[in-house]
Amino acid sequence: MKPASLSFSASAILGMVAMPALMLACLAAARAVPAIAAFPAGWVIPVPAAINTVLGWLVPALQPVTGLASKVFGTLLDALIVTLQFLPWPAVVLAVALVGFKAGGARLAALVLAAGAYIVLAGFWRQSMVTLSLVLLSVPLSALLGFLLGLGAFFLPRLRRGLELVFDFMQTFPAFAYLLPLLLLFGFGPIAGLVATAIYAIPPMARCTLSGLVEVPRERIEVAEMSGCSTWQRLVWVELPSARPMLALGLNQTTMAALSMVITASIVGGVDDIGWAVLSGLRQADLGKSLLAGLVIVLVSVVIDRITAGLFRPRSAVGSGKNRPRWQPILLAAAAVISLGLAARLAAPDLLQGWNETRGIVDLGMLNKALLGFVARYSDLLDAIKNAVLFYLVLPLRVGLAGAVLPMTWGFSMTPAVTAVYAALALLLALRQMAKGRPSGAAAILCLAALLHTGFVAFPWPAALALAVWAAWRAAGPRLALFTGLSLAFVLITGLWIPFVKSLYLVIVAVALCALLGGFFGVLAARSDRFSALLRPINDALQTMPQFVFLIPALMFFKVGEFAGLIAIALYAVVPAIRYTETGLRNVPPSLLETARQLGCTPVQSTLLVQVPTARPALLLGLNQVVMAAITMLPIAATVGTSELGQQIYIALGKADAGLGITAGLVFCLLAINLDRILRGVAGRLHSAQ
Amino acid sequence: MTSLSLPPGERRIKLACRDLWKIYGVPPREAAQIARTGDRAALQRERYGRKPLAAVAGASFDIHEAEIFVLMGLSGSGKSTLLRCLTRLIEPSGGSVTLDGENLLAADRRRMTELRRKAMGMVFQNFGLLPHLTVLDNVAFPLRVQGIDRPTREARARDMTGLVGLRGREDQFPAQLSGGQQQRVGIARSLAAEPEIWFLDEPFSALDPLIRRQMQDEFIRLQKMLRKTIVFVTHDVQEAFRLADRIAIMRDGAVVQIGTPAEIALVPANDYIAEFLRDVPLLRVIRAADVMRPATDGKPALPQFSTEDVLEDILPVLLGGAAAVGICDAAGTLVGEIAAADISGLFGTQRAMPA
Ligand SMILES: Nc1ncnc2c1ncn2[C@@H]1O[C@H](COP(=O)(O)OP(=O)(O)OP(=O)(O)O)[C@@H](O)[C@H]1O
Ligand SMILES: [Mg+2]
After folding, report:
1. What CATH architecture is B3-15+62-119+195-280?
2. How many Å apart are CA A193 and CA A176, to the nearest integer?
3. B75 CB under 6 A from ligand 1?
4. Contact A248, A313 (CB under 8 A)
5. Are A85 and A126 in contact (CB under 8 A)?
6. Where is the ABC transporter domain (chain B) (predicted)?
7. Span B257-268, pLDDT tens digits
8. Which CATH architecture has domain B285-348?
9. SS3 B250
10. Which residues of chain B are within 8 Å of residue A233 when distances are taken between CB atoms?
11. How far is Cα B182 from Cα B179, in angstroms, rounded to an integer?
């Protein structure tokens, strides 16, 4: 151990004091100079208007092409929908079950049959077929484009960095933000949604293709070279087969992304698909309907996920091809079933009509009443949770401790004496960091204390800018610092600073909730195999669900408002927290744990003192995933009434202001990409330090 | 092929390299500059925050037809890099490589592909099998690349799998085989296109000792049949001395000694190499021809040995009381003799070596 006094050199003290001093100076100046307290409206550049102008001449120029594409795909889609809806449902379900049998044996086939039965009984058959048609049309398109992009990035290493950034934007750019220009280009209706789906679903395939090809073991490349392969032979016979598991993963992820986006895109309407059923249920306060429809989505996504994952599973070593049925009989049987269905439909249209178009057997009115009764019974508890989170988490971040600490909720108010205690506490913590030889840790604590005291919204923008740039620099060096600085400058001049900051704190609150809950469940799962096995299918289901579904329980229990949005975000983002905690802790070498036990640690001690610190890089990567998930969910949560960037995008959609939507979307991407890079930078530094 | 009857050292030169360099950590142009001037001081200067690393530093040697040439050295000494420079899997920074008199470094990609298809075969440390292909398809892979039709290449691949003792396993996948069996597939594949030169990069290192020994015997058996020119990389001294016609010992990218196993065993070039030899059973490495004196005339009939016999075989006779043994060449004429003193003298010099 280094003696504490050694770390108090002049430069260390400067490192500790400089940033906090700047913060305090900004805070003090903000009282006197309004331009520091809030970004002056006069400096804002009307970016949205500029984007609208550009779109104004771009859209007519592109319309002939896009109009044609829209016609072609519209016709295809119609044909697909008509066909699927024309076929009697037993034929379709049976055919899918056969494919499921090929992919995952009798269990998966049974799952397909059960899902089909539920869909029919709940009365969503027609809508499901529309959704299925959209997925069937968009997946091959996205997968092909993604594959080609990945291939291009593989052969042109120079373009890789740029393409990765483009993929980041494609995946984080909220769909609502580009739906509007797409509507202008492709016309009102499902095709705009289809294009939005493709934009969102291409990157997973492209990324997986690229990383699969890049990670082909060197020795296999050398084998190809020494056998005298041409570039083409090498690609087709060595690299692509080696990348097959990654390609399969990419296809699976692309399919799931497409499904998720198809549902989300239903917000523009135009087709009566299952997403629309959920949405209209939500809008008409018909919770029963949206719950049933949401369950359909869950089942459909689980089935699609299992089938795509199973079909392309790498040919396993042992008994390959023996215990799995061959394609030929499966396809023949499926074709037979389908033609039988067709024949039946043509022979006896009236008989089957009734079967296909039943409204389901559930009485929605009864269901709604039961649900409301259920929620009402627990309303006290739910309100308590809601208030606790609002008063102790959300408010302090929004208006700061100075504004949020009130006698009514906290039992005391921020009198000068309390503030002094608070400051002393922060200083003490900072000094402890100093004693450990971490001046920047100390500085970070002081800055965060100041931030927490004023709250996010009132925090002066120059201080926030400086803090963010400094964090980026510390995390990943000058390049990222520059990127972060430019990003925030863009946010400021577009005048979207306040919504941006609100989004940030909403993300932070959601992430904090996820980290708490996910960390707790993750630790439990890491300690108990049985709990882990219990949790896994739930996690799987949660992770395959389209984001939209998460709104249903949030709304059901907490009504429209910021808190419901928060719950939806947290539900969606909690899974990575659980997963990464569990795997991170489980990957701690057993020898370390044995050592801890030898030293007399209790189980709790060995988790806190040994496992968690060792697993820090993995945990941080998990945190990154949680943050990204939370950000993806923000614009969707905005539909139930959060007031931040997502809301701006939603408003832009309503006002048909494409420029505002795109600007807010860009700001959104910048938030996501900056947070991602900073967290990954910190994880990388931790990793190399260990 | 006329030179095959000669001893290895006098046969035609098959593959040669001169002043071959591979330098990592600097742009290729600068690496070439360092290689051309042999500027060792430049290797000490930090560039871009690290020193350039000469993985191969000025290697020169000739490999003769049907010879087993072993590259030996510790891990990281640059053996694999040197081997890959010889096949141009890695582009050397400087120097020359000639195959049958043709400058390989001047060959374009098409010519290189042709040479690799026709003249070179390679075995990899971790086998390098393609997991999605069956054993038969793996072995036939080099032929498929050449566009040979399926029946022909499968017949040939069947022969090769038979040759390495894997008959009956043609339809299995690599993951279903043990390590030794996988490397047999690797060997069969490298031989499928009937290469003239056979490169092996630590082919048996990933196997456990018993299997390794078995595979070495197998390798010796194959080479007796095939008589390929072989470049064999290993870090295992015993393996090197067991298999080699000649050995090149590498250290930090440079070749520090080249010679037959006996030459190296008898006159190690420096302490570093002498240290290596502590694990080598000298009696099994040194052959009669390496230590015999010219036969003195008129001696009565001595117990007779051949020039190829190792000391381990001769020693019991000498210890049994014979004053000397006679050594005959392949034709049966007496060419030399060995007395007990010759052998004990040998070990005297060994022991005197500073450790
Ligand atoms: N692509 C590369 N970039 C930088 N340095 C490399 C590269 N490849 C090899 N080296 C370095 O060159 C040196 C020689 O490596 P090489 O793989 O040839 O050693 P080796 O003798 O085959 O060792 P081993 O017995 O472990 O296989 C090592 O120090 C290695 O770190
Ligand atoms: Mg090597």
Report:
1. 3-Layer(aba) Sandwich (3.40)
2. 10
3. yes
4. yes
5. yes
6. 35-277
7. 999 988 888 888
8. Alpha-Beta Complex (3.90)
9. strand
10. 145
11. 5
